[in-house]
Every structure is written in structure tokens, then in C-alpha cells.
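Reopening this one. Same input as before:
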Amino acid sequence: VQLQASGGGLAQTGGSLRLSCAASGGTFTRYYVGWFRQASGKEREFVGAISWTGNTYYADSVKGRFTISRNNAKSTVYLQMNNLKPEDTAVYYCTASFQFPSISYGYWGQGTKVTVSS
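Same output, byte for byte:
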């Protein structure tokens, strides 16, 4: 499976961005898709995930602000980020796996950079 993350850019505090993760080359509908992020000088951390049935999971730091959805017909998962904060600044990665997403396994996209200005 090949993953292509896009949609990053510059936003102001309180603003919004929507990231996309487009998949190709696999049975996308059977995968969990997760989002992770890595800020400069920090370890990669879990942001959220969506199962093939549409169940969603979020880190406490983004709960209530970020929403993950998927369009299986387009093999694409979205991360809608609202009420952005400077601490959301990071490179965001999407990953696909048959198990709940983890840094330790899965297919990974190349990352898209999000910068939130104060």
C-alpha cells in the first residue's frame, strides 16, 4: 500500500486545516488508518485513528478539536483539524495497518508539515 499525505501548511492559532491521506495499491477498506505527528526534536506521537468500520480514536490532546473520517470509495482518510494551537505544529504522517496503528509497523506516507502561528 502506498500512502500520500497532503494538505499541510500554515495556519493561525484557532484556525483550521484538513489533511488527506490517499491510498493506492491495496485493499484499503480493510485497514485501520492512523495519524501520527512529530514535532521538531520530539518523538513521533499518536494523533488518532479510524477503523475500517468507521470507529474513531483520538489522543487526549486533540480530542474535541480533530476529526478523522474516511471515504472508502476514494481510498482516502481525512484529518480535520480545528481550533489549532501552536503545539499542533509538526509533520503529520498517515499509516495503514490491519491492526490498531502503531509506530512499530504498517505502511507509512511521507508526511505533510503543519505550522500553527501564535
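So the earlier flakiness isn't reproducible anymore. For the record, The chain has no helices and eleven strands.
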